From TrEMBL:
Keywords: ATP-binding, Nucleotide-binding. This is IMPORT ATP-BINDING PROTEIN putative (DUF506)-RELATED. The keyword ATP-binding applies. One of its GO terms (molecular function) is ATP binding.
Length: 291
């Protein structure tokens, strides 16, 4: 039996709701240190992970062949289409007035604390505290997930999230602020088309969580096609399931201004004075660092 058939047999029993729970998480979050869980399968043994990884790779090859996307030229076209799609998604987010205000405040924070750009955990908390001072419901969001079948390896990640309460008490929008977004999608020996896609990604992402989920899926697919063009396997930490868990896995929300296990306390927010050098102003919804 082919790898594609085996992978299909494994995933067939899952309905759409069960699949959604693999990366789903509730958005009702307001208190410091609150935990939010997503349903996951029990952690399998190492042999199960290896088997799942190989099955998924076989499935990818078979699916591309079935869909007529097996040639290098067709993979290039799909990556180009992905670049256009991601650009359109990021451009359309500029129609969100709250997102624009949030991005403006994040830009000001990045400029104010530019001297901390090599201390990411500290910088992240400085930006979070700055946003809270301006009235945003911002917090450090820590995701952590365990290994499961299908090649998903354990991992953890940190970013800032901002929850906007809407008029209805039961409705809210969740915005993701990632200060190191584009680098999360770097891969080995990328094609020129994939490098172009990376170039168009914002180094600092500010946007709705639902938009981010779509963007991550598109970029993960483009990364897989780029690696396959060079006859390279997609590593587990660049697969869509792993990447989705970075921002949508089980998470803990905290407003603690100090990084966990911090042995030296950084200066208070109101005392830090960074020279305003090294960061340009935000242009077209992006932040760039001069090197």
């Amino acid at each position: 039996m082919s790898g594609f058939a085996r992978a299909k047999r494994v995933t067939d029993p899952l309905d759409d709701k069960a699949k959604a729970r693999l990366i789903g998480c509730q958005l009702r979050c307001s208190s410091s240190g609150s935990e939010h869980s997503a349903d996951h399968d029990d952690s399998p043994c190492l042999s199960g992970l290896v088997h799942g990884f190989l099955e998924e790779e076989d499935s990818d090859f078979a699916q591309e062949s079935t869909n007529g996307h097996g040639s290098d030229s067709e993979r290039v076209d799909l990556v180009i289409d992905c670049t256009d799609f991601v650009e359109d998604m990021i451009r359309s987010s500029s129609n969100d007035s709250y997102r624009n205000l949030l991005f403006f405040h994040v830009s000001k924070a990045m400029e104010r604390f530019s001297c901390l750009r090599n201390q990411r955990p500290v910088l992240r908390r400085k930006v979070m505290s700055f946003l809270r001072e301006l009235g945003h419901n911002a917090a450090i969001c820590k995701t952590k997930w365990e290994s499961s079948g299908g090649g998903l390896t354990a991992g953890s990640y940190e970013f800032i999230d901002v929850v906007l309460q809407l008029k209805s008490p039961s409705l809210q929008n969740r915005y993701v602020v990632d200060l190191d977004f584009a680098s999360q999608f770097e891969i080995a020996r990328p094609t020129s088309q994939y490098l172009k896609l990376l170039h168009h990604l914002p180094r600092v992402f500010v946007g709705k969580s639902e938009d981010l989920k779509t963007i991550v899926k598109s970029i993960s697919d483009a990364a897989r096609r780029s690696l396959k063009s060079g006859e390279l396997y997609l590593p587990p930490w660049r697969k869509n399931r792993y990447m989705q868990n970075k921002w949508f896995g089980p998470y803990r929300r905290t407003v603690n201004p100090l990084p966990t296990n911090s042995f030296t306390s950084p200066p208070p927010v109101n005392v830090v004075k960074c020279r305003r050098l090294g960061f340009d102003a935000a242009v077209n919804g992006r932040l760039f660092v001069r090197t």
